[in-house]
Amino acid sequence: VQLQESGPGLVKPSQTLSLTCTVSGGSITGGYHEWSWIRQPPGKGLEWMGAIAYSGRTYLKSSLKSRTSISRDTSKNQFTLQLNSVTPEDTAVYYCVKGGTWAVFDYWGQGTQVTVSS
Questions:
Q1: CA separation, residue 92 to residues 45, 77, 109 (Å)
Q2: DSSP character for 53?
């Protein structure tokens, strides 16, 4: 399984961050799997943000729930993160990952740097 993140590297404060993960070698609708977004701010640890399951059900970190949504395009085997009202504190490397609330994180994308700055 391979995952690849894509999206803008620079976002202005108060705007919406949108990142897409393209999955190859496995279906996002099969295998009872979950597909997550994880981020790592500079100098800090990894933070799980949320996941979308094979069924389409989403699970979001409670502290981010008001600003976060995860959706999918099954025809393209992609899932997308949207984070609203970003601030500089949302600056991080963002990873899409196979795994989530009931499974280990076993496949990772290479990560994409997102900087929030005016």
A1: 10, 25, 14
A2: E
Instruction: Give the max Cα distance, the chain.
Output: 42
For the segment 52-72, what is each residue's pLDDT rounded down to a tens digit? Answer: 999 999 999 999 999 999 999
What distance in Å separates the CA atoms of residue 79 and residue 3, rounded to the nearest whole number?
A: 10
Written as six digits, the tokens of 61 are 């970190």
Place of tokens 């976002």: 11
Residue 4 token pair: 């690849």
pLDDT, tens only, 7-42 = 999 999 999 999 999 999 999 998 889 999 999 999
Listed residue (72, 113, 86) closest to 16, CA to CA: 86
